Amino acid sequence: MRWSFASCPLILFLICLGIQSSSSARSNVFKTKNKLNPWNPDKFLSYFQTKRRNTNRENINPKYSPSQHNLMKYKNKPQKGFLTDLLSNSLDIIPSLIPTVMQQVRTVINQPEILPSLARTITKHVMGSARKGDSRVSSAGKEIFKPTPVLIEDAGFHAESHHVLTPDGYILTVHRIINPDLPHVQSRPVVFLQHGILCSSSDWVIGHRSKAFGFLLADAGYDVWLGNFRGNIYSRNHTHLDPDKEDFWQFSWDEMGQFDLPTMLFHVTRYTGQNKLVYVGHSMGTTAFWVMMNRYPEMNSMIQLMVGMAPVAAAAHMYSPIKYIAPVAGPVEVGMLWQYLHLLQRVLSMTGQYEFWPRGSLFADISETLCQEVDGRVRRNESVCAITENIIFLIAGFDAPQMNFTLLPEILRHTPAGTSARTLQHFAQGVNSGRFTMFDQGSEKANLQKYGSPVPPEYSLSRVTCPVVLYWGLNDWLAHPTDVAELADGLPRLLASYQVPFPTFNHLDFLWGKTADLLLYHPAIKLINQFGKI
Fold first, then answer.
1. What are the pLDDT digits (tens) for 148-160?
2. What per-residue confidence (pLDDT) applies to 78?
3. Which long-range contacts (CB under 8 A, 24 or more apart) does 147-152 make?
4. How far apart are CA 219 and CA 230, in angstroms?
């Protein structure tokens, strides 16, 4: 089976209906009984010798006022209900859906050796016996999931896991790579790597020691730390909220930038004794960084260099299917009914109690099973594993030359790692509005109550005053080059904005591209060396 846009309908159908059908099958990767000291925002700000306090009602952009928001451009737009839009879009894709589905069914039927494993996977979810974090083995008895610390140790490094507590009670896991061949780890310069949407710390250490970015940095002499945002497989825990209940998932990248990043970074600096570090973010790891610097501009003094890979702020030109959530996730419109957004939340919640695409979901497990069972008798592009590959291409951009098909089964054991449906909705709001704002609560009244403004306040990139270098791909469907250019124009201390020199380089090639080490990692390390002072 060759990849084509004819596969898109099946992919979108699977994403919507099969991603997370077994909410009872989820559990946390860890349950910590240790008493954690929460990061205190007041003490944190006093660390920077400032008395500034942040509140929910603060207008992030001092130059912004609600009157500047052109509500009239939405007023005259014909309004259609959510179900009308959904039905209309569905009817448009039906002609290409039927042959694609039939092709996938024939593929499965023609590979009867896959059916027992597939049946076991589905049965576990139907019976509620699947558990996230379980030790999983293939039909051949081979372990098919290794947590980030195991991946680090398998590569010849030492690994540490640190649990930190945010001010709002989320328990996050931060991983550390220690190179045993280099002495005095506490005195080595720190590089902090932060993953993007649906990802985790493992993304930086999947692959050979000579290829994965986290390992290359550790071998270059850095003290490497890997963050995990709330809601993913390593940070799916809270002091009192239940991850299987809606309240746990009421967050987006607003809270990741306001709470998660400063909590993790402050822990790293306090633990290592280093008061400065190099920050590398991919995708949403850059979005949360811009938010953090708006909330706490004092933290700019902590950052020696910010490296943004596939950076995202406003995403008006996004070409990914995420944008199709936009018609029902968009900004507050005159006459717009709250039930549009409420209905969207209900539809997303049907896929797993407000959690989007976690590890351990039915679809994630089916993908893992199908890819694990592919052997030398079946060409990969004709196997059912190609369904999963199509999904990756559809979301991030098509780049077969850079896709490491050998590494793909390992990637799918760790990614997707889960996030909140609200996080995805927040990105979609930016597509619709073309603005980089706080989460739109869905009505003028709700926004007034939350922010003191009928529309969500806008973040200002002018508050990011640390040195910044951007890397972007020409074929990136999530971080579109036009959006990156607009983002770059708003950064006051932009040192450089580099296009990765490969014409079809896409969003996920930044993590797993076949030649990402040559095209991106080694040049980035040379640049980091100028600031890291090894």
1. 999 999 999 999 9
2. 38
3. 147/29, 147/202, 147/234, 148/175, 148/200, 148/201, 148/202, 148/205, 148/226, 148/234, 149/175, 151/202, 151/205, 151/206, 152/177, 152/205, 152/214
4. 29
Q: Do the Cβ atoms of 277 and 304 come closer than 8 Å?
A: yes
How much helix, strand and coil, in percent to the nearest 5, is found in the chain? Answer: 45, 10, 45
Strands (E), 374-435: 419-420
| Strand-by-strand arrangement of the 277-282 sheet | 158-165, 171-178, 223-226, 190-194, 277-282, 303-309, 468-472, 494-499
- Alpha-carbon distance 387 to 358, whole Å? 18
Question: pLDDT for 11-22, tens place per residue?
Answer: 444 444 443 443
φ and ψ of 445, to 5 deg = -60, -45
At CA 445, angle to CA 440 and CA 449, rounded to 5? 80
| Catalytic residue annotation | 283, 507
pLDDT on residue 413? 80
> What sign results for the dihedral spanned by CA atoms 73, 74, 79, 81?
positive
**In this model, does residue 394 exceed pLDDT 90?**
no
CA atoms of 414 and 420, how far apart (whole Å): 17
Q: What predicted TM-score, i.e. pTM, was given to this entire model?
A: 0.74
Distance of CA 67 to the CA centre of its chain: 33
pLDDT for residue 52 is more than 50: no
Q: Contact 198/357 with Cβ under 8 angstroms?
A: yes
Share of the chain above pLDDT 90, in %: 46
